[in-house]
Amino acid sequence: MRLVVMLMTLLTAAVLVLPPATATASEPAWVPKPARGRGDKCVADTAWMRRNHMTALMHHRDEMVHEGIRTKRFDLTGCIDCHAVKGADGKPVTIASPKHFCRTCHDYAAVQIDCFECHASRPEAKTAATTGEAAPGRASKTNAAVLAQYLRSLAQ
Amino acid sequence: MSCGAKSGGGCGSGGACGCAGERRDTVDDARRDFLRGAAATAVTTLAAGVTLYSFGAESAAARAPGEEVSSKVRWGLLIDASKCGDGCTACVTACQTENGWRDTGHPETDPQWIRKLTVENPINGASFSLPMMCQHCADPPCVDVCPTGASFKRADGIVLVDKHICIGCRYCMMACPYKARSFVHEPLEDQKPYAPRGKGTVESCTLCVHRVDEGRIPACVEACNDTGGGAMLFGDLNDPSSEISKRVAAYRTTRIRSDLGCEPGVYYRNI
């Protein structure tokens, strides 16, 4: 129920408030101008994303959680990575800051975002311990190297 | 091992069946010695297998990112309690690091995706320890009772909570015979991107679904192989050629509270 209400609110707000991209030239000063993301262009046309990002995210989320379809295009983690806005301390801001990419428009449109009650609202700080991929001495590849070394020592 | 000497012994189902002690009076000594020898051989063979398999052979078959999970696969774990060190918490620490949960100073309600249990026979004091987490049942009671459909089983047997639909009623926590689920009581920030968790929802072991989908093994299994006792094995129970299927077929294994008929995907040895 909460989700339906949220989606309805988002859709209504998007239709009512967010101007189409074609109107960029004549946008009044109070229309929010969200920070540019990393890279040349978004995963879809900007005007389309403005109106439909919530639907795309929701569709992707259902497929991913229930069916394990892990495509990257409409993955929230990707959005967060590209659209991170750096704060005064040089680190990406969380949703607590009004500078956060999502909040720039959502504050203006008065649409509450529930995503970040569970999802991280900024990219993960890179440390060696965060994931098995980067951590030395944990991955099985390292074990293969250890085996190779052991076999070589036997041969000598 | 010892409790199996009496054929048809009643310890097939319960974890706390008190079978860790030896009952020498009921078994002929010569027969016991023969069995002991056979067991020693089996362990040696197994040890060689473990060494071999801990060097990179264990990895889940990777799917294409756009491909949906299939019921041809049934992920499961085999845990050998005899190799599980008493004070070792490598699996728990690895799970915490991987999925970003930690103790909040409230032991009664803290998240417990995986925990170490010590089972003791009160009569003779014999004890062993084992990791306990979501058993990824084939017929999960948590899914049966969920009023919103948030608790669900993926086609490949991984039992998950869709936190988008979870209303935090905690029926599943009551239904789970393994006390595997916990509830998030505090607001959270900076969760792991691949393991979202939030206040007001129920959570449990996901079998590191984000890693499994990439063709990697769960963090607890990796940590147990690297720094623990090598007690955990992850694999596809539906594939007869997988190491886990071979071992489940070859050795006497136990599924905790199998009398409940939930068909857990986590098998234990030597409990």
Describe the fold and architecture.
The complex is a heterodimer of chains A (156) and B (271). Chain A has 156 residues and is mostly helical. Chain A has one domain. Chain A contains 5 helices and no strands. In chain A, helix 1 runs antiparallel to helix 2. Chain A is elongated and about 75 Å long. In chain A, 15% of the residues are buried. Chain B is α+β, with helices and mostly antiparallel strands. Chain B has one domain (15-269): Alpha-Beta Plaits (2-Layer Sandwich). Chain B is 24% helix and 15% strand. Chain B is built from 7 helices and 10 strands. Chain B has helices at residues 29-53, 90-99, 141-145, 171-175, 209-212, 219-226, 243-250, and strands spanning 75-80, 114-120, 127-133, 151-153, 159-161, 182-183, 202-203, 232-236, 253-254, 266-269. In chain B, the strands form 4 sheets. Chain B has a 4-stranded mixed sheet. Chain B has a two-stranded antiparallel ribbon with strand order 2-3. In chain B, helix 2 (90-99) packs across helix 6. Chain B is globular and about 45 Å long. Chain B starts with 28 loop residues before the first helix and ends with a strand. The chains are: A mainly alpha (156), B alpha+beta (271).
Architecture blueprint of SSEs:
The complex is a heterodimer of chains A (156) and B (271).
Chain A: H1 2-17, H2 46-67, H3 76-82, H4 101-109, H5 140-155
Helix pairs in contact in A: 1-2
Chain B: H1 29-53, E1 75-80, H2 90-99, E2 114-120, E3 127-133, H3 141-145, E4 151-153, E5 159-161, H4 171-175, E6 182-183, E7 202-203, H5 209-212, H6 219-226, E8 232-236, H7 243-250, E9 253-254, E10 266-269
Parallel strand pairs in B: 1-10
Antiparallel strand pairs in B: 1-8, 2-3, 4-5, 6-7, 9-10
Helix pairs in contact in B: 2-6
